[in-house]
Structure formats: structure tokens, C-alpha cells
Design a protein that fits this description.
This protein has a single domain, classed as Orthogonal Bundle (Helix Hairpins), CATH 1.10.287.4300. Helices cover 60% and strands 10% of the residues. It has four helices and three strands, in the order αααββαβ. It has a three-stranded mixed β-sheet with strand order 1-2-3, sandwiched between helices. The longest helix has 33 residues. It is elongated and about 55 Å long.
């Protein structure tokens, strides 16, 4: 009974993570669309196109996300099997539930951080959370040190890490 309740809570949390991710993604799209106004003729023209990926790398990000989703789906499926197996001892079930919860939390943080990258004007960006660090891959021309530090700082805030734990990779 308690395990079924915990399972339902975990499934509800997973659904909430997915909904939050979709909401962040749509909010970033909405903000970008609403910020596009007619440029003033006396202001310098700056476009976000400077940060768009080149055609040759266009498939990296979707392929990476698809592969990450496949791996995570399989992990979640295996954990559900462990939790639902009547022959599994309580300790193993608890460990599986804890791992399931940590995966859903990582998914939520990655979605939020990727939404932040999109809101900053990057057409593509991927966040990968490891145990004690994270990698951020963004598309576009090389960034200067100030831009890199700003991205590290903002992503670190979302991931609850220090900025020195964030590895920033720029794909031209």
C-alpha cells in the first residue's frame, strides 16, 4: 500500500517534470517571439542569427536528446520493474525509488537549464548533469569569457552547483 502510494507520487512528479519542461520551452518561444520588434534606424543591428548552428551540426542536438530520452526511458522502465516485482526486497525497492526520484529531478533541472539557454538566444543547447558537475553544449560562434561566465553562473543557479562545476562547450 505504501509502495503504491510512493509509486503514484513518483509518477505524478515525473508528469509534473514533463509539464514544467514543456512550459519552459513554450515560455522561451513566447518570450523570443514577443521580443521581436521593429528595429530603430539609429541603433546598431544585432541579430541572434550570429548564434545559430550551422547546417552541418543541425542534427547533433535532436539526436543527442533522442538518445538521452531512450536511455532514460529504459532506466525508468527497469526501475519500475524492480519496484513492482513482488520478489524484490524492501531495501532494493527503496533504492530503486530513490534512483527514480533522482532521475526525474535531473530531467527537470536539465529542462529548465535548456529553456534558459533558449531564452538567452541560443537556438540549440544541451545540458548534461553528472554526479558532481555538468556540461553545457551550446551552438554558435565562440563566446568571450564574460559570456561564458554569465552562462555558467545562470546554469549553476538552476542546477544548484558552483559555476566552476559547469563545463561549457561551444559548437560552431
Amino acid at each position: 500500500m505504501i509502495f503504491q502510494l510512493r509509486l503514484r507520487v513518483i509518477i505524478a512528479a515525473l508528469a509534473a517534470v514533463v509539464l514544467v519542461g514543456i512550459g519552459c520551452w513554450r515560455l522561451a518561444d513566447w518570450r523570443m517571439a514577443s521580443s521581436q520588434t521593429e528595429p530603430s534606424s539609429d541603433l546598431p543591428q544585432v541579430t541572434i542569427a550570429d548564434r545559430l548552428p550551422q547546417e552541418s551540426e543541425g542534427s547533433f542536438y535532436p539526436q543527442f536528446r533522442l538518445q538521452r530520452e531512450k536511455v532514460r526511458s529504459r532506466q525508468l522502465e527497469l526501475l519500475q520493474e524492480i519496484i513492482n516485482n513482488p520478489n524484490t526486497d524492501d531495501s532494493s525497492k527503496q533504492s530503486a525509488m530513490n534512483r527514480l526520484l533522482s532521475i526525474t529531478q535531473a530531467m527537470e533541472m536539465e529542462l529548465k537549464a535548456e529553456g534558459l539557454l533558449k531564452a538567452r538566444g541560443f537556438k540549440e543547447g544541451v545540458v548534461i548533469i553528472q554526479d558532481s558537475a555538468a556540461s553545457v553544449i551550446v551552438s554558435g560562434p565562440p563566446l568571450d569569457e564574460a559570456e561564458e561566465e554569465q552562462i555558467r553562473s545562470q546554469v549553476a543557479g538552476i542546477l544548484k552547483m558552483d559555476s566552476h562545476q559547469i563545463n561549457l562547450i561551444n559548437r560552431e
